[in-house]
Amino acid sequence: MIVNDVDLRGYIGVFDSGVGGISVLGALVRELPNEDFVYFGDSANAPYGEKTTDEVRALSSRIVDGLVERGCKAIVIACNTATSAAAEVLRNRYSTIPIVGVEPALKPAVLARRHGRVLVMATPMTVRLEKFQQLLGEWGGEAEVDSVPCAGLAARIEQGNLDAPDLADQLQKLVGPYANRVDAVVLGCTHYPFIRRQIKNVVGDVPFFDGAEGTARQLHRRLEEEGLLKEGMSPGNVRFISSKDDPEELKLYRSFFKRA
Q1: Beta-carbon contacts of residue 88 (< 8 Å; ≥ 6 apart)
Q2: Considering 32, 68, 79, 203, which one is annotated as catalytic?
Q3: Number of neighbouring beta carbons within 10 Å of residue 197
Q4: What is the pLDDT of residue 232?
Q5: CA angle 43, 41, 102 (to 5 degrees)
Q6: How far apart are alpha carbons 125 and 83 in whole angstroms?
Q7: Which CATH number fits the domain that encloses residue 166?
Q8: Which domain holds residue 65?
């Protein structure tokens, strides 16, 4: 899954099923501008949100094994689905390495719009797994929460061309019924921040929440606690790797990174 001759000593490994986690990578670079990052997109197996839990765990484990073997000092699971399915397994396997995940930003959305109506957009797996159900149990009583499993949306974002009519039509089918009827939107998949404007065109001009900034702050805390922050103030490097053997895929990653 990871190119054998890639030396990643001292890097922070970030991975997702494809381009989505680049939205998290952007927040990480802003929070820790002098750190070195390698982003691994498992585009050959995207999307994760419609696979089984066992499949996501197996794919995530193979990726993290490769990143750790090549010297990454910390791992960020830049995928809500993979965090829910695999974070505990990975932390048990690599107990000495900081592993930070991302989760739907339901808590900040509810706190900002207490007793309002909150729309959660997420992959089918994220919605059904225990991690989200725990969040819903903890915070769902403070607001009216509608969860929409957005099957196929992450896969469509992977294709790029985000202003095409077919994407607008897909969003209309998924969240059109909530137009002007919600007080906040939680983007529960790391792909979705890239179409924030397109979603807003459908549901209305309301606040949007995602987990990227919280993940970046948590990584900063963990690196500081473990004495792993990079010394010096020189700008860090960002490298991209994909499981899809196609130079165009890396070009797509870089184009998304410019928007992150």
Answers
A1: none
A2: 79
A3: 10
A4: 86
A5: 120
A6: 11
A7: 3.40.50.1860
A8: 12-102+212-259
Is 189 part of the annotated catalytic residue set? yes
Residue 11 near residue 38, CB atoms below 8 Å: yes
* Cα separation values, 245 from 2, 37, 222, 241, 255, Å: 11, 20, 33, 9, 17
Residue 48 pLDDT: 94
User: Is 150 part of the annotated catalytic residue set?
Assistant: no
The whole-model pTM stands at: 0.95
Given a contact cutoff of 8 angstroms between Cβ atoms, the answer to whether 160 and 252 are in contact is yes
Q: For the chain (length 260 residues), average pLDDT per consecutive 10? A: 80 97 98 98 92 96 96 97 96 97 96 95 93 93 96 95 97 98 97 98 97 97 97 93 92 96
Given the residues 75, 118, 189, 195, select the one marked as catalytic. 189
- Where are any strands of DSSP class E within the chain? 12-16, 37-41, 74-77, 99-100, 117-122, 144-149, 184-187, 208-209, 238-242
Residue 206 tokens, joined: 């309301």
The total of structural domains in the chain comes to: 2
Q: What are phi and psi of 217, to 5 degrees?
A: -65, -40
Give the C-alpha separation, 84 to 45, whole Å: 18
DSSP E strand stretches across 20-163: 37-41, 74-77, 99-100, 117-122, 144-149
Q: Quick one: pLDDT at residue 135?
A: 93
Residue at 70: amino acid letter: R
